[in-house]
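Re-running Ribosomal RNA small subunit methyltransferase D to confirm reproducibility after the cluster update. Everything else is unchanged from the original entry.
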Amino acid sequence: MSRQSHHQLRIIGGQWRSRRLRFPAIDGLRPTMDRVRETVFNWLQTDIQGARVLDAFAGSGALGFEALSRGAKEVVFLEKHAKAALQLKENLKQLEARNAQVWAGDALIWLEQHPEPYDLVFLDPPFGKALLQPAIDSLTLLPGALVYIEHEAALAPVFPAHWQELKNKGTKEFTFRLFEVGDAA
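Result of re-run:
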């Protein structure tokens, strides 16, 4: 029996509810679980419609596709792994989504070169790679922007003083949090 080269994720809500999308079997690629996504999008339900969204370290694209399905105006997917980036593009084509783009490259370089404001940013970098803190430090966001962060439970990132934590949940393995950006002093 051959090893499956693709896995699937299910979109939970919105126009593409229950649609299944493929993603490649890549070490370290861990789509945000359905029940976590459901919680996160319950937190965000009034903030998605018309939002400009950045899905940094997109991987399977689970968070970005969920945002598109629920009415985000635009989603930019950043993904370093070429196979994963190609599958993100294929999934966008399959959904006929024209309000999204995939950038295949290093998210930290992209953040440095494109200090654009977004309404909502998803930061869920691969665990154990020391990518979260540099990503947080690279973000340029306007007051009112929301930032979703998923990280290893043992990690203690330093967040900007003007970010207010709105929600926080976790397991023994990981923590997920939602912040709102305030006025920088």
